[in-house]
Queue: 4 jobs
Job 1
Amino acid sequence: MLQAYLYIAKMKLLTNLTYRFEWLTSIFTNLILMLASVFIWQAAYRGGGGAGEALSVDDMVTYSILSSTLGALFVCNVQDTIYVKMREGQIATDLYRPLPLLGGYLADDIGGMLSSILNNAIPLFLFAALFFGFPGPADPLSLALFIPSCLLSYGILWLLSALVGMVAFWVMELGNMGMVKDVILRVLSGAFVPIWFFPGPVQTVSAFLPFQYTYQTPLGIYIGRVGTYEALGDMAVQAVWIALLALLLAAVWRRAKTKTLIQGG
Amino acid sequence: MIATLRHYLSVASCFARLAVQRQLEYPLFLVSWLLMIPTSYFTGIWMLRVIVERFQPLGGWDFPELTFLYGLGLISHGILVVFFINTWSIDRKVINGEFDRLLLRPMNVFFQLVASYVNFIGLIDCIPGIVIFAYGCYLTGFEWTAAAIAKLILVLLGGVLIRAALFIALGSIAFWTKRNGAVVGFAVITLERTTMYPLSLYPYALQSLLTFLIPIGFISFYPAAEFLGLDDGGLELPLSFALWTPAVGIVSFFLAHGLFRLGMRKYESAGS
């Protein structure tokens, strides 16, 4: 069973490495996004701006670089996969396979993520180190907490993506709702502007939503904005969200299976 | 001459009608775009507001001016997406041999490529563009005199031509390389970060590159800086950008068109 998943992940890794031209362009796209946010933060702090802030400009540069790197790393294609396969009717062949459908898609995304480490995240991080100096963690303990927190983040992101993808089982005509989720995520995850900088009411509402626990939580740990205990607390919240979303996904999936409509023939 | 022009116009309007009808065939399909695109741009400008309110104006650009620039850049993006969307998929047309069909018709191939698809959905990009720009005008106290409106139209026209030239040139590379789909995504993102955010945020090397080599700065940044009387990073040209932008637009459009024609000679149709 595990071998089957490993095979899917390996095949994804190999396909991604084949398209070299796409690979270069995607590095440059991520680089532009990273440069733009770093330069915006530098302008915001220039000449004594943000003097009263707890975070320095270097903290925000590190935050932006790591955020872009994570953005390149967290591959969650499941929403698009489900949408496209439903539209084209290919979901039928995937359901034949002696593997749970979602498990297969997760393996596919993990393969995508592994290849991203090599061909996206590392080059991007090196570029950033070259331009702006090495964006190191606040201290070794921050790094030690950052890594598990990132894994939890990926869990939340993937489950959200799969849940939104499930919408296609009911209403295919509305187009890909994953795009809408991605826009909301881009703002409320704190990937560009951390939620700490938003007005108070936004922060309060956001604390009860899963989004800020995807980017802001691990990044805040990395730059040392939160202490060890607070970091552990945040990670506990991440785990709770994973449990909730997983339960929800299981319930939705049970219903979706009976709703499956195979297009074409 | 006039007869030819009229013929081309009638074909273009016929194409446009067909394209719009085709897209309205499945109206619900637009729902996700209709939710996604405005949310994306409204939250984009909101995040800039959060930054300048908490910190300081970005290189002299405060929220009203940023809104003005963001809106101006977005409108010209929206117009491009309506009229020139086919330039985004030249590589696919090269690989699939779709130019065969256009070559068989007794009409200019480039005209057919551009005119054959009026992207009605692109209007969804124009809506937040107009709303944000109008709000920016209100906040900055932009005066709607006849001269200002004429300047604005010239700038938009020139900006759309520069954008179109860029995508035509990038697309034409596909005649040689056969694939460059990902480059379009790269160009879209780069344009968004350089026409809707002040160019003066970036280092001098990048500013010069985006002014003299790839004239992206002319699309919205320099004109907006002139309209608002703000620091544009030190580029000084005689006369108004309302003249420079269309001039640069026309020149780059012709250059890109030349590259496209050169590429067409390399076109070898698709196998089997």
Note: DSSP finds 13 helices and no strands in chain B.
Job 2
Amino acid sequence: MENIQDKLLSFSVDADGIGTLVINQTENSANLFSEDFIKRYVEVAHAAIADDSIKGVIVTSGKPIFMAGADLRALLEEIPDKGAFTQTILEMHKGMREIETGGKPFVAAINGTALGGGLELCLACHHRIALNSTKIKIGFPEIKVGLFPGGGGTVKAPYLMGIQTALMYLLQGIEARPPKALKDGLIDAVAETEEEMIAAAKAYILATPNPVQPWDNKKHRIPGGNIWTPNGVQTMVGASGNVGKLTHGNYPSAQKIIKVIHDGIQIPVDRALEIEARNFTAAASTPEAKNMIRTGFFAIQDAAKGKARPKDQPKYEIEKLGVLGAGMMGAGIAYVSAKAGMQVVLKDVSQEGAEKGKAYSTMLLDKAIAKKRSTPEKKEALLANIIPTDDPNAVEGSDLIIEAVFENVDLKDKVTKETEAVLGEDKIYGSNTSTIPISLLAKSSARPENFIGIHFFSPVDKMPLVEIIVGEKTEDKAIAAAVDYTVAIKKVPIVVNDSRGFFTSRCFGTYVSEGMFLLEEGVPAPMIERVATKIGLPVGPLAVHDEVSLTLSVHIFESDPAEKSASEKRSYAMVKNLVENHNRTGKRDGAGFYDYPKGGQKKLWPGLKEIYTPDVNAVSEEDVKKRMLHRQVLESYRCLDEGVLRSTTDGDIGSILGWGFPIFTGGALSYIDYVGMDNFIADCDAFKALHGDHWEVPQSLRDLAAAGKSIHDFGK
Amino acid sequence: MEAYIYDAIRTVRGKGNKKGALIGVTPTELARQSLVALQSKHQLDTSLVNDVILGCVGQVMDQGANIAKSAAQASGYGDHLCGVTLNRFCGSGLESMNQAAAYIKSGYRDLIVAGGVESMSRVAMGSDGAGMFIDPTLAIPGNLVPQGISADLIASKYGYTREATDEFAAESQRRAAEANAKGYFKSRIAIKDQNGTDILTTDENIRPGTTAASLASLQPAFQMMGAMAGFDDVALDKYPEVETLHHVHHAGNSSAIVDGAAISLIGSEEAGKQMGLKPRFKIRTAAIDGTDPTIMLTGPAPATRKALKQGGMNIGDIDLIEVNEAFSAIPMLFMDEMGIDSSNVNVNGGAIAMGHPLGATGCMLAGTLMDELERRDLNTGLVTLCIAGGMGIATIIERV
């Protein structure tokens, strides 16, 4: 056959009769698993099979990434005809299966990352050789966007890896380096160089004139045994148990992965692929998958690239960063910034305090080295970027300041003035306050237009979100700088307007507050905590309150002069009683809602039952669930309505990354669409009648519902 | 029409593991020897028997392909004898008696052998696969967990401690040992080889001298499974008011895994006349009820209430009760729910001491109850069992 070179791939045959198909989608930045591509691929592969002079085909990539998977954007829309959608998948399988059963060897020479559909393309080859490079990842990440491999991967992986290992890869979305993929059976060989890889591929082709896929080979034994063996039964039972434990039934695709394997592995592969296709169509139709694609994938990806920055502002370069205060937060900020290559002056009141802050980076790096995630060289380079000092003048020449001293207005006032005295007039001053309004702090500043809130979450090195707070006088240049800084340290920024508690603390606070109200109303404490994790929140409201510290809650309430609502007064009274009359102050003192025995598991404090008499039937589980989630969502909507949030997307991202709002709902605002806007409003109205004004629904939401719109139509 | 129980026979129970006495005996053979014993005991005219109904849970391998018909054929009763195998999990042996009674009452059959069989040493538990526990579309939304986790959930929810469950188990052993020593198990038969040599003549698992203290060192059986396979959390998701799952059950306070068979002869009044046999008991009423499948094993009380209501009776009308000791917490909860103490419950011990051959147990309990009611010259008895999947079964019998 003739050589081919088009916008999707090229094909040529060498003197030995070995064809090479190079995937090179010239119109895309990355090779994508698309309907058009697969059609063309199958066409060319079939032609090669039909040509007697061709002995076999090597499939490889003309781009650094072999193939990254499918284009998820197409799955954001409703699937108009599910039957036709399934049929399209089955048509694709037909073509791919003809390659598998065509009697001619196809070898995937995996010279770059092959994920999802890219890996499924490789599984439809008879042999897989990967280049041994730390840049190459092989796996099925689909579960992270609420899906699972729908191009044959779910059916075929267990034949290669065994049911248990395949379940692990599919359910956890493992992306393995080539040596691990080899060990686990996903690929057949690794090669050290491209030349070695191609030579091995040719050798396989010449040695294997009529290859049979494991799933077509009656003699093939599934590693670890098929389902109806003692091992298989144990694996399947354990898989459902653990998926139940980890997902609480909230992530349909996790269940579907086990289902496809359960139903499919007992029957011929072509019929199993039908099962996979039907389940994939169903999974792609779930609101959970769409939420995870829309918010979890695209929105967070866009935000991480700095979508929130004012467009006309030039990029703000940060070479030198001044961090004021070397406590827990300051130390973490210094670490992530130095890691991004910035020169960090870490200033504390004493040299000793500053050194201690730097030691935090040493500790993190030593841990990373122990886990082989860093090297002594990288450690030295990073530590060299952090200059601990007690000299306020040492921050001179900084491009950006991040103040992370104690939450005390007078102290912050002093620090602002002292720092601005040596800071360049055009440089930006950020405060990492989590509770004090930025506009109030900006009053200390001679240049409030350059003053902005840069709110980190603890622990800074782990938490991905940064909440950027725009004060009354903050100008676009400062917003751009804060966003550029956040992107540089590889975190995800959202930009919000000033308000008490900003967005995240304010909404998160309602979760904690609702947990306490439920306790006061007689809901057993274990039930509150369990239902919270069941609906996908990472930690129950009582445990979280212990972490924050009950004493701090009392302090924040008492030190804030603003007029408080009835619900704020109610939760304050509860916490004050616990702190003052029962000496329950929080986790730090080993005594909050929980007891924290040394070296043991935390346990709910038995004394709670004396103060709040538990009654299983006090509030139905359904209402416990709704009240904990709806309350946060209603407050998030208020933030949108009041202009604290600048977009629904920021609210979604902030809730998911800031306090672990369940991602399958799409985030704290998408949640309203997820449960149905009318249902949400009706629930809140019912709760208002029972529990008071903090359940008041803003008129604008009722208008949106009356117009039959989506929450994402807000303001449009 | 009334359904009468003319007799009941059970085999000895051998430990259901590779060292168990009966591992070399097929389940068909266990059932066959029971049928032969029944025939020879009464010089039974086997042409009068229509059908064999056997409960059996693991219906694969030795127990596959309708073991009741295999047993019927092996019994020598004749080619006319039909067989049907049923599976209501742990309730199977009693279910077969209830179905036999219903056939008799309807007039569709005259005389039926009904019972159950299970060789747990030869056909391991779980060998028959399970849609319910393995298909994720049932297991995950249903919060389904293995029975041991359910039993521990019952203990945690209702406050049965390790000490209390061990006390209960020790008492079961004490009662069984005493009944065994005094010869109360009159309907029990030994299992012999083809030469007529005894293989096992007593219940292999009874451990005289067991005390709560001697059980205290046993490791919880379901702790690791609960943690590793996520089942503790799956169970607590369904019962959020329970803070912690306490794993109190272990090999010593749960039913023993054993081999055994049991049968009863159930027929009409007319059949009795033809056989020349006097009925011992009649089946007054029988009921089943379904419960939440996660906690799974709470069925005996609701099934009993239903049976009592059907019979126009209350719990005080029952003289003796057999409630299957699948796990200590099951009879403990049953007694608490029914407001009774243990003086009339499992008076000769139970499955903790003697074992629970899944498909056979229901019929074994009925036979034990019949012997003891007669020995004490009492009238009314209740048999009830908890059942996998969240079911309960109860049957009330009365002396004739």
Note: The interface with chain A takes residues 124, 126, 129-130, 133-137, 139-141, 143-146, 228-234, 236-237, 240-244 of chain B (CB under 8 Å).
Job 3
Amino acid sequence: MVGFDRRTLLAGGTALAMPRIVHAQGDVIRIGEVNSYTSQPAFLAPYRNGWILAIEQVNAGGGVNGRRLETIFRDDAGRPEDAVRHAGELINSERVALLAGGFLSNVGLALGDFANQNKKLFVASEPLTDALVWARGNRYTFRLRPSTYMQAAMLVEEAAKLPARRWATVAPNYEYGQSAVRWFKELLTRAKPDVTFVGEQFPALGRIDAGATVQALASTTPDAIFNVTFGADLTNFVRQGNTRGLFERRRIVSMLTGEPEYLLPLGDEAPENWIVTGYPWEDLNTPGHTAFRDAYRARFNEAPRLGSVVAFDTVSAIAAMLRKTGADTETEKMVDAMRGLTFPTAFGTGDVTFRPIDHQSTLGAYVGRTALRNGRGTMVDWRYADGAAYLPADDVVRTLRPQS
Amino acid sequence: MEDLLIQALNGLASASSLFLVASGLTVIFGVSRIVNFAHGSLYMLGAYVGWSLVTQLPEGLAGTSVGFWGSILLAALIVGAIGMVIEVLLLRRIYEAPELFQLLATFGVVLVVQDVALLIWGPQDLLGPRAPLLRGSTEMLGVRFPRYELFLIIVGPVVLGLLWLLFHRTRWGTLVRAATQDREMVSALGVDQRRLFTSVFFLGAMLAGLGGTLQLPRESVNLQMDLAIITEAFVVVVVGGLGSLPGAFLAALLIGELHAFGILILPRITLVLVFLVMAIVLVARPHGLLGRASAPSRGAAAAPDPPIGPTPRPLIVAGAIALALLIAAPLLLRDYEISVLTELLIFVLFAASLHFIMGPGGMASFGHAAYFGAGAYGAALLAKHLGAPMLLGLAAAPALAGLLGIAFGWFCVRLSGVYSAMLTLAFAQIAWSVAFQWVEVTGGDNGILGVWPDGWARDKSVFFYLTLVLCIGASLMLRRAVRAPFGYALRAGRDNALRAEAIGIDGFRIRWLAFTVAAVAAGIAGGLFAYSKGSVFPSTLGIPRSVDALLMVLLGGVQTLSGPIVGALAFAGLQEQLMRATELWRLIMGSVIIALVLFFPQGLAGAVQKAWGK
């Protein structure tokens, strides 16, 4: 339609055609966003804010080629089958151009498979599982956040510098926790062959028996502990661990704990000197991030969380992709544009790329230590770990991902 | 050695926490026979209210012992009052409804509380302050042990002692115990049942609130607390024996200690341990550790279900019209609406299969998703590992579900009432944990992807017709079976087991067969579900799916054959509409359920039937 109208215009169409052209160019591009809003509100409320902010900025700048972006949000309540139903509805009834979202790994995988089956583009924002781009990767699925493997690799780099030999691990008993521990063990053993793993704990997600878990870890007398628990489990684990002295004279390496989502609820009981991946939202003063933080604060009157950055970057990526296709929403063209797409991140650390080889973005994370400041946890001595540096070599990736 | 002793103390501390919640649940169940699904919500409210009180103390009281412990007690009392309000406004009106119907009402409360808590306290986890004087730790056996955990270890037995005194040394307590044994008799002797029930509900809710608010110094307060605790609390109550306080204490100890030591040997056992314990205890002792077979209830709840006559003519006409509309549907509707209809049909069969054992069979199941999930996995595993065509997968679905039904049913149908229902839950959770942890075969929680229909059935309309034939066909066959001699034998056993045995009906075999038939039917639904969604995850056999089936049957009405159909359409249809329309779908859905419960205590189909009869 757009092409036709433009040709009419070039051919010197009558004044009667003008309103139709304006209408066609002002046509919105709809994005279907499916996420677990009711089951994970603590993470997804800031996420949604970040999303809204980015969409507003794109539209304030005139949209993409004059076409505004519009989002239709759907709540999957943490259930993959509901996510798939919403995806069907968004494509069929709401006529969205592409799908995005996903917080839980299994929801992300279900949506990715749905996208593959229906030949629609799916931009996964949050799900961490490696399977999304490797074992079960497909042409239509792209993922923004650094994966479980990448986060583990970033932490192993630091862990290998520690003198610790005896390691214990604690992780929630599901795929994310299990693969985080598996990669950490494998990569650390490769980097430092003399380490031994003396104990492991796998509390059920959201139902940690913290006292017993802390005691079980302590009884193996490790030099250092690798932690993957988060949210309520982390809080309870830290409380019991602090009171029982589990963390004294031990180094703790901990995944995602530096993210404000997990660090802030701990208040003044936030652990100190843990080596973590995260997001130093207060001290990151790159021009790009300062602008993002100020805009976010002005709009929502609070500091952004990592989820806000992830959502903001997802929209930036989608907008960049649409600019590349010239606002053409034909799926194959969008997929081709996504492969190798570069776009800016709200971290302000330069451009990020969606790798053609596995559709993983090279967005990184911050690695640093936790510390207490003004009665709450924060990150210090941090550095940006560029995601591109923490992915396996290309020939390894080819063995991990089905090649068609 | 010291490590083991300390670990035993850890087990005791968890046991105390568990006991506080379970004690309230068991007291409420003992007297009112209500399966109070909202008990976890009361526990969560206790924690949130306690947090608000402690963190907003006036100047002089903040940080003091008086302020802290006063807040704890006040929070427990407030939650007790909330429980009382729920009883007076809601539950009191539906005591006469069929067994387990109250579960539906309390589920509505759960949904409402989830959204209300989110609106009041926000999405972020809250961290309560530590208890004054009990902040730090004490050196024991060369290990630092938190003082607050020691305090908790003492609280459990103290509460047990106080409750014992209350029940054995006061007139009120004597009445409660009498009502636990035989509430009709107590009522016949002139005791005001209403006041007794309300006061019991106050006590039970207060104990839940106390359990929740006492977690403040040890755990974060969050929106997942309600569902995290409720299953475990039920397990403790059932393992201990319904209505038995010492039993609940013993069960809490058993589970607390087994957990503390279990993770030393098998760290990955955390998912399934409590359910393994429950299965073993219930198989060995059908009424829990200290429970007794309850006196046969003579109340309205036990009145035999109305006899099942031939299908009334208007219903046949209505059914035929509905069927004709369904057949015409793909011509009129778009792809999305067709796939929603497909999903609804699958849920109709799923609900009908549960109704088959719940209604005519008289055996509730809290774990019916096991067979639905077995069907889904049966189909998906064949597709993934053998590349089987869809029809073979759809045939494997009921086969695997049926095998599971034969195996689990053999144990479950020996028990009765809530014990039987909880044993089905235990088996379902064991099946779930196999699907969850056997990653090599089932893909763990990342599930099995790519289970899409074969080329010829990929069109939404074709798959819809396939589903229509299978689901309506199987539902009609279940309906037919209820009217067959087999169905008469099944209903006879439900209405009076002894008389049925006396005329030569082998109750066990009939029930076992019925259980298996229901499992097979659920398996068909599960297989279709797998192909309609394209992927299978452990959640297909998780507790929420079992609860969904239960809600559909109860909403429609257990006592009518059309109940599950109406219930499934109402429940799944409502959820589909609300989830698209609003973020607050839980609040609205919960309110709607509560309203339906109040207006139609016989279920939707039951209400229609009653209105027709008049």
Note: Chain B has two domains: 2-284, 337-543.
Job 4
Amino acid sequence: MKTIEQIEEIRKKIRQELDIRVNSKSSTREKHILVCQGTGCTSSKSPEIIETFRKILKEEKIENVRVIRTGCFGLCAKGPIVIIRPEDTFYAMVKPSDCEEIIHTHIIEGKEVTRLLCKDVDGTMVKKLDELNFYKKQKRIALKNCGVIDPEDIDEYIAFDGYKALEKVLTQMSPGEVIDVVSKSGLRGRGGAGFPTGKKWLFTKQAEGEQKYVVCNADEGDPGAFMDRSILEGDPHCVLEAMMIAGYAIGANKGYIYVRAEYPIAVHRLSVAINQAKEYGLLGTNILGTDFSFDIEIRLGAGAFVCGEETALLESIEGRRGQPRVKPPYPANKGLWGCPTLINNVETYANITKIILNGAEWFAGIGTEKSKGTKVFALGGNVVNIGLVEVPMGTTLREIVYDIGGGIPNGREFKAAQTGGPSGGCIPKEHLDTPIDYESLSEIGSMMGSGGLIVMDDTKCMVNIARFYLDFTVSESCGKCTPCRIGTKRMLEILERLCEGKAGEEDIYKLERLANSIKKSAICGLGQTAPNPVLSTLKYFRDEYRQHVLYYECRAKECKALAKIEIDPEKCKGCGMCKKVCPVGAISGEIKMPHKIDQEKCIKCGSCKQKCPFKAIG
Amino acid sequence: MEEQTKCTNCMEQKTKKEVEELLTKYERHKDNLIQILNEVQEKYGYIPPIAQLTISEYLSIPMAEIYGVITFYSRFTLKPKGKYNISVCLGTACFVKGSQVILDRVKSTLHIEEGETTKDGKFSLDATRCVGACGLAPVFTVNDEVYGKATVKKLDEVLEEYSKKE
């Protein structure tokens, strides 16, 4: 149990020690080796890197060097990432076997290990993280601490203004004032729909009920999205702190974090954070000596996409099948066990502490007229710099894909960007200059969604992408309402027929009509938005659908039943690369002579197409 | 034959005891059901019928309702998984980079569909939605080992390697 004064003391002391994390001119003789331990880098052996560093340091008896695990730096494509502070040197794709060289050359001799430095998209060598084009247009608010602090050390969080917002709220502000600040900041829900956060807080505060709850929605189900996970892995305390502030504002004393069981690292860091906060008396009764009490519990999801829908999530916390409830009543009035409940997404909470400390005006000064602040995106798919990016609202898609993302790899062309996951749509080339905010995206038939942003190149068939999303929706439909349960299944069947070349032109109309009726009649947000991937591709890529039914052709050659992979004898130089990579031995030909594909044997895996240096296979 | 039944019986008794032990740290609240099922799934790789019965008695929830919850969530399974569980990521980032081809290849090599286990109990196959290593797409996992930037060739090598193992 710590008092406000003791917390302040820790803050001052540790902040000084950690100055080298943020100040490259720090005069200390210490060095910090930061190693990313987000899920991406962990999958490529970053825990082993940490161990190896520690082992070498111990063996060589080197002092003044600390090895720190951190959350995600963002540039997952270059992982595992190692950063050395204070000089801020950035090493990419480090292997455990590289540790020895880094210690000897960099730490002992003071020279850079040039071969591990990162090359930017334009070919220039980059020594520091923020010299990368990837970071130049980013603005980190929600991700402020990710990659800076050790997420499993509460002192490091406290050092960078952690729990200062809670202290300010508890000692200087009334609940009404807190809600006022959140409302004025213009913050909107980052889970997808964009409902004004301040309003949600106000409704829950005004709702009648003795017992109220605060819930954090960390059931990030959108496939290919990892924003919330990265925040929980890199800075779990900021979510806890914000939930407490919300609890104070609406008059709740209990919070639940509903997180996917598929995120073991995030769950672990959250439980560590909760325990540490309890030890310091930052969670529990009479927090910081005030009469405010708050407790947080973790609830694990079990792999159901629909539980990201707020009422389904509540059902799941209560231990039942995650089927959405009919709204109204909204959770603000009747939520968990019938009590008024405030539900916000992880990223929404991650903005709260910064808004309280820096003021509503500061936050409202960032972004566009109706969408304030920043948005975190998980950039993935056919783009060079796959990773986590945070940009001010209003940044255009082109800036994200080309300036930050580094464009499309393998000399391919941009075809579409998908936002909003299974509830969103595909945005074509002509809308690349659309500024990203809630309104602009829904105007062009997509939605902000939670922040998944998948880039697709011209080898992707849009009919097949629509089929992919519908396949997802069908298997994840909870089955409560007919339009979603049966309607999406029928849509999927039509799409499958299209991909197999068994559909007629009338099927396209049927598909469209069905999509529009599901949109109007499903009971929850997920059902209502399930047809979006189909509607948006029909809107922008209708000719591709028509090609599937009129000419039985798939121009991207992705629909196997319609595609035939062939080698262009004019472009083929007979290098034999395709022959080597073919897993079924379907390619034959003499060296320096055009090769041929045996269509009977070919499984259309596309390996040869990827490998061909002359782009002769298509 | 008799011996075998007897043996199944003692296995069941053993499981029942273990599950009862595990239940002691939970209060008898219905909202603990999913937490408990998660723990049982983790421990056994599936949810054995005897565990369902034990939980049902402990929390006073009908078996039918528990069955309903188990079948609703994709993480819970009613059948044991293989010794090596292969999961191919079908998240959008991986799908765009060709993970469907990887999945099809596993199916045709092992002659099993998603959610099935090979007859010898060695391999089982799942299609998962995002394992979180989007930077390494396409990705598949064998138990906890993650294989990134997968190609059909790499998959074949990995499968070959595991086939040789015990």
Note: Chain A touches chain B through 55 residues (CB under 8 Å).
